[in-house]
Amino acid sequence: MPTPWDESLLGQALGAIARDYGYARYAVMTIPSADDARAELKLIFSNWEPAFQKGFEKLGLGRNTIVIRALKAGPTPFAWDADLLYGTEEPGEPNPAARFLATNEIRGGVYVPVHGMTAFAGALAFFGDRTDLSEAEATQLQFAGFGAFGVLAACRLEENRRSNPLTGRERDCLKLAMLGKTSSEIGIILSLSEYTVSQYLASATRKVNASNRTHAVAIAAQMGYLS
């Protein structure tokens, strides 16, 4: 009987893929739905050391608009070069982001976008001493990206169900919204006012950090909250 996947095995597999392609670090991240200066990639799984993660977040590397726009544009992997992406403050003097990456022996990397059939979007990222990527390698990493998100979702499904932040009424409203029902129709089915239904949906949307009710349905379903 095959050994079931868990996060430890997933980490080993991603670590092996990173090494095979000449990278040192990997990360599974979510792509923000919002499009503003505060939008940033959110880390959900990686082999990053605490100090590296702290530096990455402190310097706002997850808020790079060039990266986020490239990932939102489509499924094509985005290979990047630290010098070109972060530049310098003054001739010969690297800016804090470039200095941070250089200190951690990172010259470049690749972000592999994973767009699900729902509103969910994420990216599998690799960082290291490499800046190029062939078309064949990009295709191979796309398959790795979809596999990584699928395994991680399966590993965390039961945990997500146990830590479900939604109330029973919020789940009921989202399930009916998933079927295409309007707030008025949901109210009739659940014997609630349209205003109350809207409040439940708004609360659920905030709890799952979604931009609207459609996005909330997608995230809640992806996380196993509606099962």
UniProtKB/TrEMBL annotation:
Gene Ontology biological process terms, A to Z: regulation of DNA-templated transcription
Transmembrane regions: none
Pfam family membership, one: GerE
CDD domains xrefs: LuxR_C_like (cd06170)
Tree of life domain: Bacteria
PROSITE patterns according to UniProt: HTH_LUXR_1, HTH_LUXR_2
A molecular function GO annotation: DNA binding
InterPro entries given in the database record: Sig_transdc_resp-reg_C-effctor (IPR016032), TF_LuxR_autoind-bd_dom (IPR005143), TF_LuxR_autoind-bd_dom_sf (IPR036693), Tscrpt_reg_LuxR_C (IPR000792), WH-like_DNA-bd_sf (IPR036388)
Alphabetical list of SMART domains matching this protein: HTH_LUXR
Stretches assigned to the HTH luxR-type domain: 159-224
Protein keywords: DNA-binding, Transcription, Transcription regulation
Xref: PANTHER family: DNA-BINDING TRANSCRIPTIONAL ACTIVATOR DEVR_DOSR
Annotated protein name in UniProt: LuxR family transcriptional regulator
